[in-house]
Design a protein that fits this description.
Rossmann fold, binds NADP nicotinamide-adenine-dinucleotide phosphate, binds zinc ion, cinnamyl-alcohol dehydrogenase activity
Length: about 350
């Protein structure tokens, strides 16, 4: 066994990797393990481009391991299954999100919350073992972490649900922001934010988008079905909305103030952070004490809930609004994602555009 990405494992693979914190992605030959008894091997068809991919390749969170092959919104077709696999068979469409492993025996794993297992294995840049993500020709993964793809859910525009979708769906359920007639704000209309609007509307919730960009208003209301739209820099608009919301899902990827958002909450309201900016938030006590307000966080979702979310999405015809791109457009896509210039998720057409060298 060699130790280079190319020779570490017996099965040759090909993808795009960042080599350093410039984040520039370029072709890489690497290798993946053989298909184990409980493993599913699949050809990657599509992979979404999450802002976490961008944070990761740029080492924003100071945990990058290079070479890094990002991608955790992966949809593909099964090419091989191990002898003990029951969930899927060759030819089935499957998905993999942010997780490819966990200890399977701790309290969190027992409660179907593998995302909070201290030994979980992220799909790429894992701190436990070396993992490579979906900007690649194929994947191999234990069947527990495989999502069975619903028949009538599109593969390309469905792919972003595997991270963006579950990341907003899970806190809606856990924090009880899923009751018809409630009023919930969604901050940041990007990959996560736009699918949050779609899920909340499907649940019968009144939705207000809180954005930095007035140009997104028309689409947010007519295409995504938001009920209202606030521009966060517009003080009179923000003032008029004070104490009107039962909850807020904050998907913002960059530094931004929380206090104006907390003031939009009714008493007992909940602000849920899912965005992961690098700089710590300023969080004074008084705006929370007056109104018994709560600020919480949430990380993706467990495997059971991810399967539930994808079936909910299929039933309600929820898919992401995507820009389908070829693999070699990825560096331009990352530059545009940095500037919030995407409507609303890039998805890489891996099978048709990733050519091995
Ligand atoms: P995205 O598509 O880039 O969307 C982020 C949105 O935030 C932008 O579209 C923009 O919306 C808003 N925004 C950007 N810069 C801003 C600023 N300086 N001030 C205020 N608003 C700003 O990113 P994404 O893929 O949805 O991911 C969003 C964040 O969630 C990232 O930090 C990502 O790492 C994190 N994430 C967390 C989890 C989790 O499990 N918790 C999972 C996936 C992703 P407007 O133009 O509407 O203002
Ligand atoms: Zn993600
Ligand atoms: Zn565990």
């Amino acid at each position: 066994m060699g130790s280079s990405p190319e020779t570490e494992h017996p099965v040759k693979a090909f993808g795009y990797a960042a080599r350093d914190s410039s984040g520039v992605l370029s072709p890489i030959n690497f290798s993946r393990r053989e298909t184990g008894d409980e493993d599913v091997r699949f050809k990657v068809l599509y992979c979404g481009v999450c802002h976490s991919d961008l944070h990761s390749i740029k080492n924003d969170w100071l945990n990058a391991k290079y070479p890094m092959i990002p991608g955790h919104e992966i949809v593909g077709v099964v090419t091989e299954v191990g002898s003990k696999v029951k969930k899927v068979k060759v030819g089935d469409k499957v998905g993999v999100g942010c997780l490819v492993g966990s200890c399977r025996s701790c309290d969190q794993c027992g409660a179907d919350q593998e995302q909070y297992c201290s030994k979980n294995v992220m799909t790429y840049n894992s701190s436990i073992v070396i993992t490579y993500g979906g900007y690649s020709d194929h994947m191999v993964c234990n069947e527990h972490f495989i999502i069975s793809w619903p028949k009538d859910l599109p593969l390309d525009s469905g792919a972003p649900l595997l991270c963006a979708g579950i990341t907003v769906y899970s806190p809606m359920r856990y924090y009880g922001l899923d009751k018809p007639g409630m009023h919930v704000g969604v901050v940041g209309l990007g990959g996560l934010g736009h699918v949050a609007v779609l899920f909340l509307k499907a649940l019968g919730v009144k939705v207000t988008v809180i954005s930095t960009n007035l140009k997104k208003k028309e689409e947010a209301m007519s295409k995504l079905g938001a009920d209202s739209f606030l521009v966060s820099s517009d003080q009179p608009q923000m003032q008029a909305a004070v104490s009107t919301m039962d909850g807020i899902i904050d998907t913002v990827s960059a530094d931004h103030p929380l206090i104006p958002l907390i003031s939009l909450l009714k008493p007992n309201g909940k602000l849920v952070l899912v965005g992961a900016p690098t700089k710590p938030h300023e969080l004074p006590a008084f705006p929370l004490l007056f109104g018994r307000k709560l600020v919480g966080g949430s990380l993706i979702g467990g495997m059971k809930e991810t399967q539930e979310m994808i079936e909910f999405a299929a039933k309600h015809k929820i898919t992401a609004a995507i820009e389908l791109i070829p693999m070699d457009y990825i560096n331009t896509a990352m530059e545009r994602l940095q500037k919030s210039d995407v409507r609303y998720r890039f998805v890489i057409d891996i099978a048709n555009s990733l050519k091995s060298t």
